[in-house]
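Minutes, project check-in

Agenda point 3 was the complex the collaborators sent over. CS summarized: two entities, 521 residues total, and the question is how they sit relative to each other. Sequences were read into the notes so everyone works from the same version.
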Amino acid sequence: MTINTGDTAWILISSALVLLMTPGLALFYGGMARRKNLLSTIMMSFAIMGLIGIIWALWGYSLSFGADKGGFIGGLNFLGFLNVGMEPSGIYATTVPHLAFMAFQGMFAIITVALITGAVVERIKFSALLLFSTLWLTVVYAPVCHWVWGDGGWLGGLGALDFAGGTVVHINAGVSALALVMLLGKRKGFPGDTMEANNIPMVALGAGLLWFGWFGFNAGSSLASDGLAASAFVATNLSAAAAGFTWMIISWFHNRPSLLGTVTGAVAGLVAITPAAGFVSPLAAIPIGIVVSIVCYYSIVLIKNKLGFDDSLDVFAVHGMGGIWGALATGIFASSAVAGTPGLIEGNGAQVGIQVVGILVVAAFAFVVTLIIGKLVDVTIGLRVGQSEEIVGLDLAQHGERAYGGLLR
Amino acid sequence: MKKIEAIIREERLDAVKQALEENSYFGMTVSQVSGRGKQKGIPLQWRAGEYRVDLLPKLKIELVLLDEDVPVAVSAIVRNARTGETGDGKIFILPVDGVVRVRTGDRDENAI
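CS then shared the predicted structure for the full assembly.
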């Protein structure tokens, strides 16, 4: 195992790019919250960067990528960087330092937990979120990550394709978000009260940072500075472009071309191409992106407007449903010319079946275990802030700060 | 002495201000306000679907005048703030008990 300098440079840069997605997400979510909850929404992402950053180093990485235990979870041989050093691991990303691979994967863990917060903003108790995040990373993220990407993981062994985390990150976070919404309930005044985004330019800036960072997420998942990375890079951009534009058209059809809609579509496009980026030809990203915006748009209409679930910032509709479409699309569009695995279009219908197994198992596992640990948090320290705190807003009630201070402009 | 409180469309401010100036009424206070009247709000978009905002942004102009100047000022505001559509706003005319100029301590008519 020798270190390849080009690969190492690319993985370190990609790790930084993926890290930047979480502050990007903080702005993306923060701008959509009401003014009184802007800081608390941003705070959730930054607190998770701290908390999960530490947990990942102490035990998260080991449980995800340590020596396989029955295909279900990693062992303790990487606990606290044990055996994780400057030399390549010999199993994962064998041309870059093991520490670089560990860091890259850690950024995925951070943003996955942060994604969930969008569903529960404006009412979850901050301490409860931290306890939940600790438990969730340990008993949901680590096993699912091991199944799909860990050496010996059973879903990866089955042949489920997930290039950069459609299942591990997006379906996992999206379904867990929905489960947490069911435990936590609606925000006071939902539906009915006007709940306006406080700063849509901030949402757009966040979406821009997500789009930028996603090149590290997807092209970095090639784990090498190679042609596959370039292919995934182009596919990533095309899917975001197609999906953002499609959402714009849908909003135009219903009303007028909406900026909030367009940037939401771009993020949905990035979600959908995540599992597929290194398995499909770049051009396939266009239909993948077009379809995901249609899927996610009408998922919001169904879940929020018709069924009345207060998935506040549409985490299940965008990441859950977008991730499910992405996983299916990977099975449909996979091209043997890209990574050696054919999909439905090349006559390998079985791949779609394998993808469906991955979707169903991960969704069911994430849903049930999230309900259990969410309930556990609820009966111990309580999931939700008090009613008066919710009315005042979480910025003041939970953090003693406000976004826009000063009487004078 | 009377106080005029005029709620007008944001985009009519410059015209109203100019008309008042032409009639030599310089002093005014302008603030951004939200309110509703017969216009009943406008629909805005969320990511999917619409919501209604019924408190719309308007501007409030406040000026204090001698009684005899009120008709001229009011007609200048009405002429320049009016578009004919709902949402043009309202003008309130209130009695004023006293005025003090902070710099000099002048009172009432001398302070306007």
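Noted in discussion: Chain A touches chain B through 20 residues (CB under 8 Å).
Follow-up: revisit at the next meeting once the mutant set is ready.
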